[in-house]
Amino acid sequence: MVSRRDVLRIGGAALAGTLIDSAVPAGQALAVPPPGPEIPMTPSPLPVGRGCYLTFCRIPTAGLDTWKSIMDSFAEDGVERVVLWMGGAFRSRKYPITWRYNRSHRNVRENFVGELIDYAHTKDIRILLGFTPYTYDGTNQYALERPDLKAQQSNGRLARMQGIHSWGYNLDPTKADAKRFMLEYAREMYFDFYPNADGLLIESSDIDICTGGDCGGPRHYYEIEFEFVRRLSDEVWAHDPDADILVHPNYFVGGPNGAELPYDPRWTVIFSPWTVNLEFAKKVSRAYYFDLDVISQPPGNVRASVRWVRDHGFASYFPSQEFFTFVAEHAEFGETNLVGQQLRPFGFDFIGLDENPYRDPVVAVNRVALREYARNPELSDADFRERLGQAAFGDDATDQDVADLLFLHDFCYGRDKSLFSLAVQADPRAMRDRLERGLLGLGDLRAIQTRLDALPAVAERLRRSRNPAVRCLTQHTRLIQHNWDSDARDLLAAHLRH
Question: What is the pTM of this model?
Answer without folding.
Answer: 0.90
